[in-house]
Design a protein that fits this description.
It is built from 14 helices and 24 strands. The protein is an alpha/beta fold. It binds uridine-diphosphate-N-acetylglucosamine.
């Protein structure tokens, strides 16, 4: 078993280069299948979800070869089948993108229901309703979703009950090949929705309005190959920004799009951090006087991202005064709270609301990562805790953060990974 061991209370100083966005990469890779040609995808993060995605693609006859550590050549010209086995689908949420990509391109997809972090109910009903509206037949047996569209898909107006990121991208991918025009209303506006649309447009799709609530897709007959660079990861960037704040450090996150960080920047400023930004970087300095409490409500983009809620709540526990956090996206995203309590956090949870007492001093203990962002929250608490923090189940972190300990060590953290029986 692997553990992360942190000796805390070391202020972080220096620059961190942010990798390509996990949630964009895991959409663009399956989308590249739809090209039926050769695509070269650059700025891929070195994370398990990307490796899992590549293994899934290889299992269906797609040739994937790294040109360098961040650049993958995907050759989907000789794909051998459209059936994704359970072992590939279950270990990541984004395996659902194979449904849209293969249904659109081949009129057929068989994909086991997706896995991913356990954040409460994570249905895929909007995805399936969207495919059905485009004319596909959807059925499910033994946990496997089967989608068919023998006569091809037809454009339709599809209204999403809530702006689901996954449903927006999945329906958009299927609609690329639908006859006529598809309108997705109440679409998600997240940066990775825009990135997936930009990639598809680069290889020949006609998608208009990505980044707004109304996405229009004009069907095309085929796509071609092409090159694409994945956008920087706002969640990784936000994690390092919060790390600077929680250790009273001075950290510059580089290779980012500062606009994507507005909700995080504005909350850290409200708490008393000094923040400066340039074209592709943000510098976050803590505050010797201590940070102030504030209120956070997670929301769809451009609101505060749910994927930074555990990290931010962990920081708010150390701020002066009572903070109120409302989790509006997932119904079970406070599973990490018992673990940060072991480190000294004082907070109450009432349904979707967390109320922090504030001014906690974390002290090291043995804790367990319950999911990806929960693991990041524990690392942040460990970085400012007195003494040693030992985190188990660190495989969750590897799914979404590349070179995690290495990047933290480079800015002054005392963090290492150990193996124990
Ligand atoms: C994606 C991200 C995840 C992020 C989340 C919200 C990926 C691979 N994962 O997850 O990191 O936390 O967006 O920003 O990009 N819903 C339904 N029915 C559906 C689909 C969603 O009820 O068919 C609900 C969900 O239960 C949730 C909300 O809609 O309450 C948002 O989910 P969604 O945006 O789809 O999240 P994911 O695609 O699972």
């Amino acid at each position: 078993m692997e553990y992360i061991v942190i000796n805390g209370q070391k202020p972080l100083h220096g620059n961190v280069n942010i990798s390509g966005a996990k949630n964009a990469a895991v959409a663009i890779l399956p989308a590249s299948i739809a090209a039926g040609d050769v695509c070269v995808i650059d700025n891929l993060p070195q994370i398990e979800d990307v490796s899992n995605m590549i293994n899934a693609m290889r299992s269906m006859g797609v040739r994937c070869e790294f040109e360098d550590e961040h650049t993958l050549r995907v050759d989907a010209r000789n794909m051998t089948g459209q059936v994704l086995e359970e072992k590939y689908a279950r270990n990541m949420r984004a395996s659902y993108y194979f449904m849209g990509a293969m249904l659109g391109k081949y009129g057929y997809a068989e994909v086991s229901r997706p896995g991913g972090c356990d954040l409460g109910a994570r249905p895929i009903d909007y995805h399936l309703k969207g495919f059905t509206a485009l004319g596909a037949t959807c059925s499910q047996e033994h946990g496997v979703v089967k989608l068919t569209a023998e006569d091809g898909l037809k454009g339709a107006n599809i209204y999403l009950d809530c702006p689901s990121v996954g449903a927006t991208i999945n329906i958009m991918m299927a609609a690329v090949f639908a006859e006529g025009t598809t309108l997705i209303e109440n679409a998600a506006k997240e940066p990775h929705v825009v990135d997936a649309a930009s990639f598809l447009n680069k290889i020949g799709a006609k998608i208009y309005g990505a980044g707004t609530a109304n996405i229009r897709v004009k069907g095309v007959e085929s796509l071609s190959g092409g090159d694409y660079t994945v956008l920087p990861d706002p969640i990784e960037a936000g994690t390092y920004m919060i790390a600077a704040a929680i250790t009273n450090g001075d950290v510059t996150v580089e290779n980012i799009i500062p606009k994507h960080m507005d909700s995080v920047t504005s909350k850290l400023k409200e708490m008393g951090c000094a923040i400066t930004e340039g074209d592709d970087w943000i510098r976050v300095c803590g505050n010797n006087e201590g940070l102030r409490a504030c209120e956070i409500k997670t929301a769809f983009y451009p609101g505060f991202p749910t994927d930074l809620q555990p990290q931010m709540t962990t920081l708010l526990c150390t701020a002066q005064g009572t903070s109120i956090v409302t989790e509006n996206v997932f119904d079970a995203r406070y599973r990490y709270v018992n673990e940060i309590r072991r480190l000294g956090a004082q907070l109450k949870i009432e349904g979707r609301v967390a109320v922090t007492k504030g001014s906690c001093t974390y002290t090291g203990a043995e804790v367990m990562a319950t999911d990806l962002r929960a693991g990041a929250a524990l690392v942040l608490a460990g970085l400012c805790a007195k003494g040693e923090t030992v985190i188990s189940e660190v495989g969750h972190l590897d799914r979404g953060y590349g070179r995690f300990e290495e990047k933290f060590r480079a800015i002054g953290a005392d963090i290492k990974r150990i193996k124990k029986a």
